[in-house]
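Lab notebook, bench 4. The sequencing result for the construct came back, and we need a structural model before the next group meeting so we can plan mutations. Quick request posted to the team channel:

Model the 3D structure of this chain.
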Amino acid sequence: MASTERYRLSGAARKGMKPLAWCVAVVVVTVLAWGRLPVLAQTTVWAEDGGVFLRDVLSSGHLGSILLPYDGYLHILPRAVAAVAHALVPLQDYAVAMSMLSCLVIALIAVGVFSLSRSVTESVPLRLMIAAIPILLPIGPKEVLGNAANLHWYLLWLVPWLLLFKPKSVQGGIGMFAVAAVSAASEIISGMFLPLAVWAAVKRRNFAAPAGLLLGITAQVLTTLTKPRGNDELPTDTVGPLWVPVDPLSVLWGFGLLPVGSIWHADSRTLASNIIAFGGWALVIPCLLLLALLAYTLLAGRMEFKLFALGALTASALCWTAAVVVSGKPMFNYANYTEADWATGFGYMRYAATPAMFLLLLVPIAAAAANERRQLSRRLSALIVSAFIGFLAISYFPASTARDDGPAWSTGVEAARAACVADPALTSAVAVVAPVTWKFADVRIPCESLR
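Done. Here's the predicted structure in token form:
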């Protein structure tokens, strides 16, 4: 009887340790993500985090700002992160809080996908490979890591995993419904996963995440129809076209350059130099490796793995195409680049982040197919996992980021505070966010918030 009681206590203790283990994992992964950011990047407010989200928190309040549209879309999660950061810390520490909270969200996504990826493979080492992708993504620190303005790229990565996994409890279903709804209400491009949502509902009888996705997309479409993109958010001195068409060849060429090229060459200057010297041959090796992984899975994997691999490639291509076409920036016309453009005008951008993550997914999918066919010993499987994570870890410290030149947010807030203190009649003062040339770089802060 006593031994039975001890066994029960031991089982209860193990069950109680599980949430603690998940919490420790989130903390560790948060620190790993945070460590990839240079100190100045950690202390710089990036774009919408200050020029839109903080601006609206200051004018509309913490809760009132969350549902406000910007540029034709809802940004529920980034706005919520901004509201929490402003509520938790003094204004001069807002940049650090935003960076840390954004890394925390990415860590939650990575750890969450580790659990959700059981829908693809039960192998823990292979799921670790999948979980490492958003944290160690080579292009991550360039622009998307450590700020709320770009969390939507990581949410795009999360959405299909939510749709593939069927929760085992009502509470789990409610949670997945909420996460899917918030994800879709933070990134309208997640609507490209609606066919997968229909499949999940019909074939797997999984209704929670698909319903959440549909709710979020519906809210996004209504917002776009009532508050179209680029209608009232432009400064009065804006000149030039808001959108220019990108030719199909440039879209294809750009897919090889950014999503594929950024995996192989973490520094865009290296890739640009190789393009000048060798032309398109500079991309042959990474393209062949990815095609080989896809080919192996299609030949050796069971039907489910084949669909996963094709789905990953399709998601990558759709994410890239949708982002580039909707953006309509002249810089994406790569087919018309001159040597001078390659030397001075080419650089990696946020649009490559999610497509690159889905391309990297081809590695663990191929490994899962080989593992199921018993073509991988335990030692070889561990070697593949180590090699994959090691390859990504080579780019752990970035060569450069978009926030290398600051400006440091706390310095700007202190200068604004000094101006308000020096002039009692002053009602507001300005602090600057990165990039300083952005249309809303000047964040006007009420003096009452500074004094």
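Confidence is low (pLDDT under 50) at residues 234-240.
Will bring this to the meeting.
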